[in-house]
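Input record, target 12 of the design panel.
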């Protein structure tokens, strides 16, 4: 592996996270009709958004490397088909959890926002998986869906506990952008295929 490529991933992911946070924060401010007291407060607000985006990016990268370790261990424990099935099951459970769990344990409260959040995560995962398959191989679909859905849901547990829609939007949007970027660039960071060739076929992640 080329360390310069991984450093490139680190810094570009930071910039993408910061940009995602800036865009999300400014759009939310416009939609909510919020105003700042002068240029100084506005610049301070931009600085806070930038710093928050950087932290979200670092958090996303921690989840990304945790996924790489988990994927490596999973392929060592389970057979190829078995690991794919495990990832699919965990992906479905994570999606159902974020969409419906609080609906049933929330005392009858309306949880439409959770369903919308699940749909957004699913849509982002499908688009990312489609692009990833176009770039690499059909075998990359399941790992991409697993990372974009299951790992993203795990990363958003903290903000979901706050139960504030604005905070959820502010965290999830840059997180999805960073996760998608890291997954789409993964195959370019290694010197060869992510997995070794098995029976004449190469599996990409």
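The sequence produced for target 12 reads:
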């Amino acid at each position: 592996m080329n360390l310069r490529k991984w450093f490139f991933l680190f810094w570009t992911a930071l910039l993408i996270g910061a940009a995602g946070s800036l865009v999300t924060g400014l759009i939310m401010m416009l939609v909510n009709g919020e105003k700042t007291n002068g240029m100084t407060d506005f610049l301070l607000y931009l600085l806070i958004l930038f710093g928050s985006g950087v932290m979200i990016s670092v958090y996303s990268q921690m989840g990304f490397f945790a996924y790489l370790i988990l994927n490596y261990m999973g392929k060592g424990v389970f057979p190829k088909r078995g690991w794919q099935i495990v990832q699919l099951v965990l992906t479905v459970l994570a999606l159902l959890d974020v969409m419906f769990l609080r609906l049933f344990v929330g005392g009858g409260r309306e949880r439409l926002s959770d369903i919308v959040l699940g749909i957004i995560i699913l849509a982002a995962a499908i688009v990312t998986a489609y692009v990833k398959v176009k770039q690499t191989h059909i075998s990359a679909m399941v790992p991409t869906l697993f990372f974009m859905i299951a790992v993203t849901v795990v990363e958003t547990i903290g903000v979901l506990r706050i139960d504030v829609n604005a905070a959820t939007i502010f965290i999830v949007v840059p997180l999805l952008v960073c996760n998608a970027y890291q997954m789409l660039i993964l195959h370019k960071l290694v010197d060869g295929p992510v997995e070794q060739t098995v029976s004449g076929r190469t599996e990409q992640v």
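The helical segments are 3-32, 38-77, 80-105, 112-135, 141-155, 157-162, 165-185.
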